[in-house]
């Protein structure tokens, strides 16, 4: 039993060290992520709509693949940018497109909403420097 406890403690420490010591994936200074659609101020007649995401000077790659010069999209809804030194959260305000998607159909309730894109590396961490769009506002009728 004591051996299992020691092994568990060592494994936990190794995992913590590995996560904490992982260096951010570099991104070119001129990389840009942006919305193709919707545009800032777009009025959405129905709650479901397509979001089309663009990327310049980098490539899109699914989670767990790629490396330097690649990443995948994360859509931030009604939230601020997360800490740039930690993995991007995965919840209703932080949508992950880890299969390498460049468009997605989303549904939002009526009202004013803020959208922002943040590129993540193969481990869902922001790059260095971080690659994110300006926030835009959409209004769902």
Provide a descriptive summary of the structure in words.
The protein has 141 residues and is of the alpha+beta class. The chain has a single domain, classed as Immunoglobulins (Immunoglobulin-like), CATH 2.60.40. Helix content is 14%, strand content 35%. It has 1 helix and 9 strands, in the order H-E-E-E-E-E-E-E-E-E. It has one helix at 2-21; strands at residues 32-37, 43-44, 48-56, 59-60, 70-77, 94-96, 103-107, 111-120, 136-140. Strands 2, 4, 5, 6, 8 and 9 form a 6-stranded mixed β-sheet that branches. The longest helix has 20 residues, at 2-21. The chain is elongated, with a radius of gyration of 18 Å. The relative contact order is 0.26. The model is unreliable at 1-21 (pLDDT under 50).
**Average pLDDT figure:** 87
> Mind summarizing the main beta sheet?
6 strands, mixed
The succession of helices and strands, N to C, reads HEEEEEEEEE
Helix content: 10-25%
Proportion in β-strands: 35-45%
CATH architecture annotation: Sandwich
Could you give me the name of the CATH homologous superfamily? Immunoglobulins
What's the short version?
By secondary structure, the protein is an alpha+beta fold. The chain is built from one helix and nine strands; from the N terminus they run H-E-E-E-E-E-E-E-E-E.
Write the layout of secondary structure elements.
Layout: H1 2-21, E1 32-37, E2 43-44, E3 48-56, E4 59-60, E5 70-77, E6 94-96, E7 103-107, E8 111-120, E9 136-140
Parallel strand pairs: 2-9, 4-5
Antiparallel strand pairs: 1-3, 3-7, 5-6, 5-8, 8-9
């Amino acid at each position: 039993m004591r051996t299992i406890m020691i092994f568990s403690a060592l494994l936990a420490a190794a995992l913590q060290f590995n996560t904490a010591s992982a260096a951010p994936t570099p991104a070119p200074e001129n990389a840009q992520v942006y919305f193709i659609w919707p545009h800032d101020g777009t009025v959405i007649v129905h709650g479901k709509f397509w979001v089309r995401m663009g990327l310049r000077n980098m490539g899109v790659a699914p989670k767990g693949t790629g490396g330097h010069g690649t990443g995948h999209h994360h859509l931030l809804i009604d939230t601020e940018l997360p800490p740039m030194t930690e993995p991007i959260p995965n919840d209703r305000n932080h949508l992950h497109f880890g299969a390498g998607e460049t468009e997605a159909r989303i549904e939002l309730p009526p009202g004013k909403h803020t959208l922002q894109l943040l590129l993540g590396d193969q481990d869902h961490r922001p790059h260095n420097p971080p690659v994110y769009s300006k926030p835009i506002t959409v209004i769902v009728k």
